Amino acid sequence: MSFPINRPRRLRQNRTIRRLIRENSVSVDDLVQPLFVVPGNNVKAEIGSMPGQYHLSVDQAAKEASRISSLGIPAVILFGIPEKKDNVGSEAYAENGIIQKAVKEIKKSAPDLLVITDVCLCEYTDHGHCGVVKDKQVANDPTLELLAKTALSHARAGADIVAPSDMMDGRVGAIRNALDDNGFNNIPILSYAVKYASAYYGPFRNAAGSAPRFGDRKGYQMDPANAFEAIREAELDIDEGADMIMVKPGIAYLDILNKIKQKFGRVTAVYQVSGEYAMIEAAGKMNLIDRKAIIMETLLSFKRAGADFILTYYASEVAGWLSKIS
Ligand code: PBG
Ligand code: ZN
User: Fold this and answer.
1) Are 214 and 208 in contact (CB under 8 A)?
2) Atom 2, ligand 1: which residue's CA is nearest?
3) Residue minimizing CA distance to atom 6 of ligand 1
């Protein structure tokens, strides 16, 4: 009978040695908290499709932002639900739109917190598509101008980083030009470079009232069957000047996240989206899983796959846990 010489278990004997050799970890520095901003005053209304997440009026968002900042979280990403929608998404680039107001107030209440703004039209258009609709199609090039205007208006309001999520071709370049032409050459672009047409966005669309009224987003978001195309998308955005790239959704696309990080070595984010959140919440509520352990294991899997940071609805809750762990 021969015994093994190689025993990986030697390095798993106790908590301390496991801690010593651990390859990856989740830190508060890795987290970005999404916030939903709505019209009104003193509004804090739980979102039906995303229990534990809230619609916040500007004043409440500013209050929440300062709490988030004091937890040590580096950034929030803002989504806006406008007072009114129209077919060109005017409120997305209105000087006094919901996001523009929220950015200003948040920068006042939490000056060190990075404010990232989601740049898209779907929350602001009455048809719910991410761009201008012509002949039942989302028209690429006319949309670029509006996205650039939106990003510029966010920068003027004081946003630290703009994050286009529309998946139009050429939008990173168009936004970079608009920012640079107007003195905002220091504002980084976090591009949703690799964004799949995913059913995992369902709860968000309910929260933002941004579901398309006709058709779907398959004409602009990526086919979940494709991996090589993700490399092409990331490459184009990098060439157009994206400072950071994102893969979205998270858990079902870890292979893509890993490929993109390995291939380009760029700052790469991942978005744990609303459907991923909703599923964990539902299973947790039914006591089918150890909710906290599942959340931490999932976030760790993003880091292991190569994410530099994570957009997650769990950011502030996890920050609280991390500050208590010895
Ligand atoms: C807007 C946008 C969406 C998400 C982020 N930005 C929805 C969509 O593309 O339909 C999804 C976020 C989530 O599901 O948590 N384009
Ligand atoms: Zn959109």
Assistant:
1) no
2) 165
3) 165
pLDDT (tens place) for every residue of the chain, 326 residues total? 789 999 999 999 999 999 999 999 999 999 999 999 999 999 999 999 999 999 999 999 999 999 999 999 999 999 999 999 999 999 999 999 999 999 999 999 999 999 999 999 999 999 999 999 999 999 999 999 999 999 999 999 999 999 999 999 999 999 999 999 999 999 999 999 999 999 999 999 999 999 999 999 999 999 999 999 999 999 999 999 999 999 999 999 999 999 999 999 999 999 999 999 999 999 999 999 999 999 999 999 999 999 999 999 999 999 999 998 54
- Tell me the domain boundaries of the chain: 24-325
What CA–CA distance (Å, rounded) separates 196 from 218? 8
Nearest to 230 by CA among 263, 260, 200: 260
What is the 3-class SS of 9-34, one letter each residue? Answer: HHHHCCHHHHHHHCCCCCCHHHEEEE
Q: What pTM was estimated for this model as a whole?
A: 0.97
User: Are 164 and 189 contacting, i.e. CB atoms less than 8 angstroms apart?
Assistant: yes
Amino acid at residue number 46: E
Contact call for residues 36 and 118 (beta carbons, < 8 A): no
Which atom of ligand 1 lies at the shortest distance from residue 273's CA? 15
**DSSP helix/strand/coil, 225:** coil
Instruction: Report residue 275: phi and psi, to 5°.
Output: -70, -35
Q: How many residues does the chain have?
A: 326
Q: Which atom of ligand 1 is nearest to the CA of 202?
A: 14
Distance (angstroms) between ligand 1 centre and the Cα of 27 equals 24
Please name the residue whose Cα sits nearest to atom 5 of ligand 1: 165
Q: For residue 283, report the distance from its CA to the centre of ligand 2, in Å.
A: 28
- Nearest atom (ligand 1) to Cα of 204: 14
The yes/no answer on whether domain 24-325 falls in CATH 3.40.50.1440 is no
- The tokens 């619609």 sit on which residue? 55
Output the six-digit token pair for 122: 């779907």
